[in-house]
Design brief:
The complex is a heterodimer.
Chain A: H1 3-17, E1 23-27, E2 35-41, E3 52-58, E4 69-72, H2 115-127, H3 137-145, H4 147-163
Antiparallel strand pairs in A: 1-2, 2-3, 3-4
Helix pairs in contact in A: 3-4
Chain B: E1 7-13, E2 18-24, H1 29-39, E3 48-52, E4 55-56, E5 73-78, H2 91-101, H3 125-130, H4 132-140, H5 142-148, H6 151-159, H7 162-170, H8 172-179, H9 181-192, H10 194-213, H11 217-240, H12 260-268, H13 272-279, H14 287-297, H15 301-310, H16 312-318, H17 321-333, H18 336-344, H19 346-350, H20 352-370, H21 372-379, H22 381-400, H23 402-416, H24 419-425, H25 430-445, H26 449-453, H27 458-461, H28 463-471, H29 477-486, H30 491-500
Parallel strand pairs in B: 1-5
Antiparallel strand pairs in B: 1-2, 3-4, 3-5
Helix pairs in contact in B: 7-8, 7-11, 9-10, 10-11, 13-14, 15-16, 15-22, 17-20, 18-20, 22-23, 23-24, 23-25, 28-29, 29-30
Classes of the chains: A alpha+beta, B mainly alpha.
Chain lengths: ~160, ~500
């Protein structure tokens, strides 16, 4: 069996025993170690507090050389999450140099990252959006220009996530 | 009878706090929420949200279902009460608490304790049992499914039924079956799904037909019949008429009920004694001898051996002095018996030399068997193992080289059935000696490769695997070495092992 699946199995077992604050992770299907189901708990003292946002982590076979893809299934309104739910953070970008020069190589994917470090980054992203490279331009614009509307929109998502 | 299942400790982690909750291992999520509410008095139950492995747990699910075990941590989120809470779902908690509150439903024949009473408007129980459609709809009812999905509860029902209790007391092996949650689940699944039910029945019949076809199948059926079917049917027909829920119903009316499962089974498992007893021409005077007559008549003595090897207690009873003595008496009282045995062996029938050899060796074997030291040897588990290997080798031979088998067949009946005795006493005909050599070489080949394959220095042998384990974050070198040694260097198995051990 490949190293990737062994590594993921270890992470899964660790997480079952000692889960990390702020999210809960498991497999979508017990037979597929490469597809993880994550429930991100809206961080306290943010607009997202009280929400549970479901996401799928899709690991490539050559993990940890390459990063997984993360996609929110629950509707979530955030500058760094595009409208399809794809999460856009630097540590999930393929390793190497950024062709636009925004990100330094050490900010991008590194094989040391685990589900835990990825999710912690995502949670901190929910707390502090990065306006430099918005994936959802409308959300970024709304947050800057019409914060009240932005708040309302996020609250809507939080409410919807609770109903699931 | 364990009505109280073990308590486990579950850590509940909220964004701001951490609580420890003690709860039954098979409790429902709803029960867990009740316990959590003690710590969070401000919240009401609808606001409590338990999350585990990426999923929001639903009230009616159980902890076992999500594999939440002792020491595991679940997340707790209290929803904000911005929106109007929906009307409290009253039905679920009552249903889920039923198993624990009614540990002995049948001891108090009270309609309110009947779990099926919850399903009103279903018609009377007798109607349901007579009508497969109604039965199915009962089985499809979520309340029933929940009840039946709980093996602990099913066990309680069964164990509190006096007929079943008696049955289990007499036949511990049946008790094991009823204690096996998998078997229970399968049975329930089967009842629920008519197609599966029919399929199972068909498979069952087919399997038995196949069994009868292979040499020795009869012997296996006989044992099955004696050990399971007969006591089951006996106890069932006594008063239960095959319906384990009979005593659960408040009314104990004695109207006859149709039980499809019982009847089908009855047909599917033919009573081997019946046919053989008719064939047995003499010695009807003594029950035991009749048994042995038919047993020895069966062409499948070798398969009987197989059965015995896998069942030490049966083996012990087979070789108990009384049994051996009774065989001997039987033999001396009835000289025709050996002839009839020999007549059952095709190659012996055609070859007077072989049949003569068997005839001569039989009394000697029996003498040997009454020797305590031989009996001791027969009970030795390693000897049993050797027997098993012989049997295995033989079946391989049958598969791979049937032409070879014909050569040995006569010896096999004499030597195979009572293998080691034939070898030791050289009582068998000459052909048995060749067979003994063959067995010896087979035993050698199928010996214990594991003992020779043990590496001298595991750290050296598994250096590359050790390195990989290290790189995956398994830092305890001693444990890594132990795991690799135990798995013979299989990295995947070693990781599995390391992860599963705390």
């Amino acid at each position: 069996m490949e190293q990737s699946s062994l590594l993921l199995k270890k992470q899964l077992a660790d997480m079952r025993r000692v889960p990390v604050d702020g999210f809960s992770a498991g497999l979508v299907d017990d037979n597929d170690i490469y597809k993880w189901e994550v429930l991100v708990i809206g961080p306290p003292d943010t607009l997202y507090e009280g929400g549970f946002f479901k996401a799928i982590l899709d690991f490539p076979r050559d993990y940890p050389q390459k990063p997984p893809k993360m996609k929110f299934i629950s509707e979530i309104w955030h500058p760094n999450i595009d409208k399809e739910g794809n999460v856009c953070i630097s540590i999930l970008h393929d390793p190497g140099d950024d062709k636009w020069g925004y990100e330094r190589p050490e900010e991008r994917w590194l094989p040391v990252h685990t589900v835990e470090t990825i999710l912690l980054s995502v949670i901190s992203m929910l707390t502090d959006p990065n306006f430099e490279s918005p994936a959802n331009v409308d959300a970024a614009k709304m947050q800057r220009e019409n914060y009240a509307e932005f708040k309302k929109k996020v609250a809507q998502c939080v409410r919807r996530s609770q109903e699931e | 009878m364990a009505t109280e299942s073990a308590l486990i400790k579950v850590h509940v982690k909220s964004p701001s706090n951490k609580y420890d909750v003690e709860i039954a291992a098979d409790a429902s999520v709803s029960e867990l929420k009740d316990k959590v509410l003690v710590f969070v008095p401000t919240a009401n139950k609808e606001q409590v949200c338990i999350i585990y492995t990426g999923k929001i747990l639903k009230d009616e699910e159980t902890l076992t279902q999500h594999k939440i075990a002792d020491g595991h941590t679940v997340h707790l989120v209290i929803r904000n009460q911005a929106r109007p809470t929906p009307a409290p779902a009253a039905a679920t908690p009552t249903a889920s608490s039923a198993p624990s509150s009614n540990p002995t439903p049948s001891s108090q024949p009270n309609p309110t304790n009947n779990p099926f009473a919850a399903m009103g408007g279903m018609g009377s129980p007798a109607d349901i049992l007579n009508n497969p459609d109604a039965m199915r709809s009962v089985m499809d009812n979520p309340i029933t499914q929940q009840l039946l999905g709980n093996p602990e509860f099913m066990r309680t029902i069964i164990q509190s039924n006096p007929q079943f209790q008696a049955l289990i007391e007499r036949n511990p092996e049946v008790g094991h079956i009823l204690n096996d949650p998998n078997v229970m689940r399968q049975t329930m699944e089967m009842i629920r799904n008519p197609n599966m039910f029919q399929e199972m029945m068909r498979n069952h019949d087919q399997a038995i037909r196949n069994l009868q076809g292979i040499p020795g199948g009869e012997a296996a059926l006989e044992r099955l019949y004696n050990d399971v079917q007969e006591p089951l049917l006996n106890s069932a027909t006594n008063s239960l008429s095959g319906n384990p829920f009979a005593s659960l119903r408040g009314d104990q009316s004695s109207e006859p009920r149709v039980d499809r499962a019982g009847q089908e089974n009855n047909e599917a498992l033919p009573n081997p004694w019946a046919s053989n007893a008719n064939q047995a021409t003499n010695n009807q005077s003594n029950n035991r001898s009749a048994d042995f007559n038919s047993l020895l008549d069966s062409p499948g003595i070798s398969s009987l051996m197989e059965q015995m090897m896998s069942n030490p207690s049966m083996q012990a009873s087979m070789f108990s002095p009384e049994v051996i003595n009774s065989i001997r008496q039987n033999m001396s009282n009835n000289p025709g018996l050996i002839d009839s045995i020999v007549g059952q062996i095709p190659s012996a029938r055609d070859n007077p030399q072989i049949s003569e050899g068997i005839r001569r060796s039989f009394p000697q074997m029996l003498n040997m068997m009454s020797d305590p030291s031989v009996m001791e040897a027969m009970r030795n588990p390693r000897v049993s193992e050797a027997f098993r290997q012989i049997q295995e080798g033989f079946s391989t031979l049958r598969r791979e080289a049937p032409q070879l088998l014909n050569l040995f067949q006569a010896g096999a009946m004499g030597g195979g059935a009572f293998g080691s005795d034939a070898n030791a006493s050289s009582a068998g005909a000459n052909s048995a000696n060749g067979l003994a050599d063959l067995f010896n070489s087979m035993n050698m080949g199928g010996g214990r490769p594991s003992s020779t394959a043990a590496p001298v220095n595991p750290e050296q042998t598994y250096a590359s695997q050790l390195e990989q384990l290290q790189s995956m974050g398994f830092s305890d070198r001693a444990r890594n070495v132990a795991a690799l040694t135990a798995t013979f260097g299989d990295l995947n198995a070693a990781v599995e092992r390391l992860l599963n051990s705390p």
